[in-house]
Design goal:
Layout: H1 2-12, H2 46-54, H3 58-67, H4 77-86, H5 98-107, H6 135-151, H7 161-168, H8 174-186, H9 197-214, H10 216-226, H11 230-235, H12 238-245, H13 248-261, H14 264-281, H15 287-295, H16 297-306, H17 312-320, H18 327-348, H19 364-376, H20 385-398, E1 407-413, H21 414-417, H22 421-428, E2 434-440, E3 445-450, E4 476-481, E5 485-488, E6 510-512, E7 516-519, E8 527-530, E9 535-537, E10 554-566
Antiparallel strand pairs: 1-10, 2-3, 2-10, 3-4, 4-5, 6-7, 7-8, 8-9, 9-10
Helix pairs in contact: 2-4, 3-13, 4-8, 5-6, 6-7, 6-8, 7-8, 9-10, 9-14, 9-18, 10-14, 12-14, 12-16, 13-14, 13-17, 14-17, 15-16, 19-20
Protein name: TLDc domain-containing protein
Main location: membrane
Keywords: Cytoplasmic vesicle, Membrane, Synapse
């Protein structure tokens, strides 16, 4: 009888590797448990988490994902990861069968080819990490990435795209994986995957900058150990510490948080790795110090990550307890670094990234777009066509590189749609970015590039209060007539000031309600317009450090035009 009972128990015991699809080889996957059963509260299942996703309770969701150390073989990820990725999709959701239609369009069949699939040029062979995928699983990953390259021709360089695709395939079928990746690539509110060489460089320089402030001792220690090769070479590999070197159970727990919170999770984990590496190499008799001095700190960090001496829970706890490292600060450092690199490109003529619009100078496509814009630009009255075109060429060269690839679309003009703030919001508020151009009754022409949707005026913070100001440091002011000048955010100005000195008044980009619109704040408002879009005023402000955009300060609006960018 006991033998019968024992066999029944064995038959009922769940398969440890049941969570993985057929295209995964689970034999090499280590099942880690962070603590003995009963020591912690039971782990949440997807049915308990789903309402938080549906109701947009992002802060609660963030804390639950951070605190629930689901084992690598938990079935929760098959539902959780797709639901987290769907939060970030831009535009309409894809119809069932869309992916397979794309596969047929690209390959002529939905059958997996016997021959290797040619990957897009933005993928390098060294980036093709398959983790525990079988040979068929690798072919599936190749196909997903190839279709993404076909659907997203503007991706020029993306080291993390293949590894993240491969990781997703450990917990879901091919079509679901494609939908997840398409959502992450197209995400507007958060960054997940860099898509150009320029932005890839921005990320590692951002890690280096925030490490100097928020992991100061570890950063100094790394700099000393780096010797002749210098710390820059070490930081350039920061994503591979996470994606290539961490044990797979650690990586999966990092990705749990990443799919909800974005690339800032990777930044925090990179700093945690530096902090832990510092802790284990401070003693000159330690094996890791010997490794660093013998084989170089880059090899030592890689080996340290592969043999991570702490659990996934401890790694994440180290990452999320770095104090005062806010998303706003990370975003500020990122944008300032991006602007600095773009400025260097223009000054030196270097080609860090070859997108279709290169260095913001008008390409043939841009010239077509500008020509289209000039035909609808009613503010061009009393200007020659050549003067108008030159003004627009200048404005086009100031736009972020990625935006110059899109066709401008006239969303709102007071001459056709009337002078009403309500109409303005109806026609404009869901577009991002937008370009506002004002012509005054004294023929001055000025405006602003607004990086964020005007709908954000309705958003509430984590405490439920409406945000007074919103927007990002990509927002800028400009004047086109009689003077031509661009006024970027002061956080991007190359004047040597450190980020810590920026006051609250220097980050007031956009504000709006039913009575007015404001762009720029702090000791004045750069552009203010009333609810009838008839009168406005302009003054110097701390956010852009601009002079008044017209001499009198007060102005009467002759025409306001707002442009969006099709497909942006």
């Amino acid at each position: 009888m006991p033998s019968v009972m024992l066999s029944a128990v064995l038959e009922e015991e769940p398969d440890l590797y049941e969570a993985f699809p057929p295209h995964v080889d689970p034999s090499g996957i280590t099942i880690l448990t962070d603590s003995p059963p009963g020591k912690k509260a039971p782990l949440k299942n997807f049915e308990e988490i789903q309402p938080l996703i549906q109701q947009g309770r992002k802060r609660e969701l963030k804390l639950i994902i951070r605190e629930n150390s689901w084992p690598i073989n938990s079935p929760v990820r098959a539902s959780l990861w797709p639901a987290l990725c769907r939060q970030h999709q831009h535009g309409k959701s894809m119809l069932d069968g869309f992916y397979w239609d794309m596969v047929t369009q690209v390959f002529g069949t939905v059958e997996l080819p016997d021959k290797p699939i040619m990957l897009p040029p933005f993928v390098e062979a060294t980036h093709c990490l398959g983790y525990h995928l079988t040979r068929k699983g690798r072919a599936v990953a190749d196909r997903v990435v190839s279709v993404l390259g076909y659907a997203c021709p503007d991706i020029t360089y993306s080291p993390s795209l293949y590894p993240i695709t491969a990781a997703l395939l450990h917990f879901m079928p091919e079509e679901e994986c494609y939908h997840c990746m398409a959502s992450l690539v197209a995400s507007k509110e958060k960054m997940f995957i860099t898509q150009t060489k320029l932005l890839n460089e921005v990320t590692w320089k951002t890690v280096m900058q925030i490490a100097k402030k928020h992991a100061k001792s570890a950063a100094q220690h790394l700099s000393r150990l780096s010797g002749a090769i210098g710390p820059e070479r070490i930081y350039a590999d920061w994503q591979w510490w996470i994606l290539a070197a961490l044990p797979f159970p650690h990586l999966v727990r990092v990705l749990d948080c990443f799919f909800h919170e974005g690339i800032k999770v990777f930044y925090r984990v990179a700093l945690a790795i530096l902090i832990l590496f510092h802790k284990h190499t401070t003693n000159q008799n330690s094996e890791w110090y010997a490794e660093a001095t013998k084989n170089g700190v880059d090899h030592a960090i890689d080996k340290f990550c592969r043999n991570m001496p702490v659990s996934p829970t401890k790694l994440l706890r180290t990452a999320f307890t770095i104090r005062a490292l806010s998303s706003q600060y990370i975003s500020r450092v990122f944008i300032k670094t991006e602007m600095t690199l773009k400025s260097k490109q223009v000054i030196t003529g270097s080609r860090l990234v070859r997108s279709r619009s290169s260095d913001n100078l008008p390409t043939s496509q841009s010239q077509v777009n500008i020509q289209m814009m000039s035909h609808t630009l009613t503010i061009r009255e009393r200007m020659s066509e050549e003067t108008c075109k030159q003004m627009l060429f200048t404005l086009w060269s100031w736009l972020p590189v990625r935006i110059t690839m899109y066709q401008p679309v006239l969303l709102y003009t007071t001459e056709e749609h009337g002078c009403s703030l309500t109409t303005f919001y109806v026609r404009v508020e869901h577009h991002e970015p937008t370009l506002l151009m004002i012509k005054t009754c004294n023929n001055e022409v000025f405006g602003a590039y607004c990086s964020t949707r005007w709908f954000e005026r309705n958003q509430k913070d984590e405490r439920g209060n409406r945000q007074a100001y919103f927007g990002t440091g990509e927002t800028f002011l400009f004047s086109l007539y009689p003077e031509r000048a661009k006024y970027p955010w002061v956080g991007c100005a190359a004047d040597g000031r450190s980020d810590e000195k920026l006051s609250h008044g220097s980050e007031l980009f956009m504000a709006a309600d039913s009575k007015m619109i404001t762009i720029g704040g702090g000791d004045g408002q750069a552009i203010w317009m009333d609810e009838n879009i008839r009168y406005g005023k302009t003054d110097r402000c701390s956010t852009f450090n601009n002079p008044p955009l017209c001499p009198s300060g007060d102005f009467e609006i002759r025409v306001l035009e707002v442009y969006g960018f099709a497909g942006a």
